[in-house]
Amino acid sequence: MIPNYILVAYEFDNNWPFAADHMHELWETQGPTRFIRLPKGEKRTVLEILEGDAAHVRRIVLLGVYITLEQIEQLPALEELAHNKAHIAAELKAAEPRVSIHCHPSESFWSQSVAEFGLALTLCGLRRIPQLHHDILTSLDSWNYDQDPENIQPRQRGIQFGDDIRFTNGTVRGKRIRIVGAGNIAALYANFVSTLGASVRAYDPFASEPCFTLAGTEQEHFLERLPLDADIFVPMVPLTDATEGLITAEIIDALPKGCLVVLVTRANICDMEAIRRRVLADEISLAADVFDIEPVPLDDPLLGRHNVVHTPHNAGRTEYSNLRYVDKIAEQFRPIQG
Hints:
Blueprint: E1 4-8, H1 12-15, H2 19-28, E2 33-37, H3 46-50, E3 59-63, H4 69-73, E4 80-83, H5 86-95, E5 100-102, H6 111-127, H7 129-135, E6 176-180, H8 184-195, E7 199-203, H9 209-214, E8 218-219, E9 232-235, H10 249-253, E10 260-263, H11 272-280, E11 285-288, E12 308-310, H12 319-330
Parallel strand pairs: 1-2, 1-3, 3-4, 4-5, 6-7, 6-9, 7-8, 9-10, 10-11, 11-12
């Protein structure tokens, strides 16, 4: 009789390839646990999979596996159940008071990964690291920093100086970084750039004052003020009905010429038409992991530009975020005993 079960749907590992095994490792150290990866096209119900243990299972984690309220009622010893889908967990929790139902409480499991990626994009946008990497594969021109010896001018290219002075460039230190958001991802990012010496201000009407203090940022109470002096502008909120289009064309147009825009949460929190217009006019630069159209078409004019750094929407899915995904579920269970 095995009291603890982890059931993993065939498709789950495509989304979270390291999570299920980590959940198994966590539970295996605490008591007898049966770990089952279901084959493609599995049609059996949870009760059929549990077979003779259905009357004895006390804790179960379902990763991509559906269960009904009626099936739960036929698990008399069940004390705790976790489902990785928040809406399913919420429905079961509302209907079944006998069993403690768990899910990951927020998206904090990937906040570290996204915030670090945002910092990396910021650095790449400031120093044009991807463009330079690409250039030296096919040409030696990028190694030559010398100006015309007959016409040397100040504030131009010089020895080991190859930044594009038309756009925000150089170090994070001393930059005015303006962030929309003060949640898990935005607060970490703000803390990173503040530590590096940036002057950081953030807008988030739903965050309390301590959120800004802990992130090392000043609070801005009016969104329309945020872009006015931005060297780097970072919209960093999730995409919801309330945030879609939050960053309007008026806000984008208020960004100073040369401003670097960093996008790592969802592109459609912004008026992307306005961003595209200003980027293509060489008025601002862009460092983005997310776009309004994904995959970005190969003929999209944003691709390969001198003022755009682009990556294929992979900021959040690190091995670390996979492990934290199930850590957040496992933390809600009482300690397992054999």
